[in-house]
Give the backbone structure.
Amino acid sequence: MPINNSRVVTYSPAYTIVPTYECFNRCSYCNFRTEPGKNPWMNISDAESILKPLQTEKVCEILILSGEVHPHSPKRQEWFSRIYDLCELALSMGFLPHTNAGPLSFAEMQKLKRVNVSMGLMLEQLTPTLLNTVHRHAPSKLPEVRLQQLEWAGELQIPFTTGLLLGIGETADDWWETLAAISEFHQRYHHIQEVILQPHSPGNQQSFNAPPFNPHELPEVIAKAREILPADITIQIPPNLVKDDQWLVACIEAGARDLGGISPKDEVNPDYPHLQEQLLRQILQPAGWELIERLPVYPQFDYWLSEELQTPVRWWRNTL
Ligand code: SF4
């Protein structure tokens, strides 16, 4: 897979499963969460029925994206086991799991490494001012808690995806500071494979009353991020949140090289349907960009994986 080719943009053929939408945080821009106890969790047999038909489609990554149960809740262990079991199921069915389930303990991360080819957590923004606004009721969004995750992922040699949420009340200087912090951790552990630059895009469920992040500003932010981040970290943008075709191409020209997991539904931004592969190609090809599939783990990290994980990864590298 020629991912170093300079006119290549990648994406991951993915499907998202959600163990639970319940979350003890209440970020005011959230369009995902439900109140704890209001929705049944996904069980293993339901997940199996969802995944079965995907085995004959070109789906490689299963993104396990979950709302959070409080670390001290009596339900935490059951929640964690459900996530672990869903990863194990996805693996047993030939898929490559990538989990993003909020901050985890060191031991939880260590266990999930066994059944994930990579993991992720958005840093969002480091500025503590957001704790008085959009994150007032979101204890998981303490910047030091999230930085700790980056550090533990590095110590555990987990290929990691992180990113910034843009336009939630931070300043431009806050962006550069957050990007610099990511760079610093990467220089220590060399474990960050991608940084997502996600523009805030208002949805129907949120209470945060603010305009969308101006997509026309995005290429400039990408160009500066490209200067700050080490060259071996790929910049990812979600194409469904850029909207305008020309500006999507402008984002690529500015240095973004990945469009993330493309699945039938964007669970985090359900009001913004994903552009499917065919349409993305139609936008990118005339501008001279080739769209190719990638795995949820970048090749330079394969040797960090256990033999049990390397076997399906090798298979997918020969297949996609
Ligand atoms: S954004 Fe994430 S952490 Fe915040 S309330 Fe929604 S699901 Fe929970």
Remarks:
- The CA atoms of residues 139 and 158 lie 24 Å apart.
